[in-house]
Amino acid sequence: MDRLRPSAAAALVLVAAACGSGSAGGTSGSGDSGSEASPGSTRTLTAFSSPDGTTVNTGFGTKPGTCAQQKSDTSSCQAARAALGLSGNWLAFSCNVVEGLATSSQAAAASLASATYVTLTMADLPDYTSNYYPTTGSYDFPAYSDTVTGTFDSLYSAFSTDFPDPNSIAAHTITLYAPLAPQAAASESQSMGGPNGGVEGMTLNGVGIFDSAAGGTDNIFAEAGSFDQCGGHPDNTSTYHYHAEPYSISYDDDRLIGVMRDGFFIYGRQDSDGSTPGTLAAQQAAGAGSSNLLYVYGGHTGTAPSSSDANPFHYHLTEWKGCFDETTPGAGGPPTKMDDDGASYDPSGTFNTPATSTCNGSWVDAWFLTGHGNGGVFMQVPDALDDEAPAQATAANRYFYGTPGPCTGCSGM
User: Fold this and answer.
1) Using alpha carbons only, what angle is made at residue 400 by residues 72 and 84, rounded to the nearest 5 degrees?
2) Helices (H), 224-323
3) Over the stretch 105-120, which tens digit does the pLDDT of each residue have?
4) 10 Å Cβ neighbour count for 177?
5) How far apart (Å, rounded) are the C-alpha atoms in residues 370 and 153?
6) pTM of the model
7) Per residue in 254-267, pLDDT tens?
8) In a 10 Å sphere around its CB, with 0-12 CB exposed, 13-18 middle and 19+ buried, how is residue 72 labelled?
9) Which of 37, 58, 130, 401 shows the greatest Cβ crowding within 10 Å of its Cβ?
């Protein structure tokens, strides 16, 4: 959940320590799970990635724009990850993400045999330009054998959103503990939503995944008006994050996007067979109840798009619809929900499908990483501020399929 209001002066320099994963910087010692012992080099944030030749047209919530999809250069961190015994999808994360191993007590583990978690430590800085980067200050953090340093002005690019977020991007040390061998929870596990929001997963480029609840009196379709051209924005702690399809990584495809805190991986809209399992129609066809894995968890069991993913379950982007007509700025600048949409949603709250009327703007399709529902369903606010029935907010909770690992330095937690 976001609360879009001006933040205090952002910390522009990060001194990273891979919490529970050994050194995040340039050397490794006995039992250290963080990095290689090479002297390393100095690189900029964007040196770890480059455009892959595909530029996609964006526009959900934002004004029309374009985002260049990125491919990661992971050559400088593969040896360290292989030395830990990691393989498969863990090797696909950018070198801006420092990987390590940890025991069940979150202490550093020297080998897979003694490890319960893969730790992923990030600075939470997108590897592309954004209108939310400040024009002054610098970043400086270690990523394996490299020191990643540069100035924020080189990452700033002008882009006009419908509702500019008052916050700027700043570096944050965030560490996720993703279970190395995730298992399905015996019953519905921890909700991905909640009053504090926060980081629910991590994308390949080292950006946090947030739930799909907006803050204040917004709904997420209103808040999406502040997304930059690649689909992210910062919250009031200056933590940059995604709610919906991260265009620089995935756009209507089956690409690996990242991992959720329960250790299960998340992919784009498409599956290994070319189908699109997360459509609204598919979720409705699967019926209500906990057996509808797509509705309750946002994923399903079966062959994952990545041959390296041996888990029986995996997440996908899932589709929901809402009304984008929020044109009234609220306190601090973000848009507010219009009262005339209060009766425009399915009152049963089962699938929260929009009605065909009572929308002053336009109905839009959106592909979300963790949330589902529409409009006010995404609001985690007191009933007095919510136009929708409480049953809808309850029905809109999405759960982790497995048991989520801890997260340190996570916004809202």
Assistant:
1) 45
2) 280-285, 293-296
3) 999 998 999 999 999 9
4) 24
5) 32
6) 0.85
7) 999 999 999 999 99
8) buried
9) 401
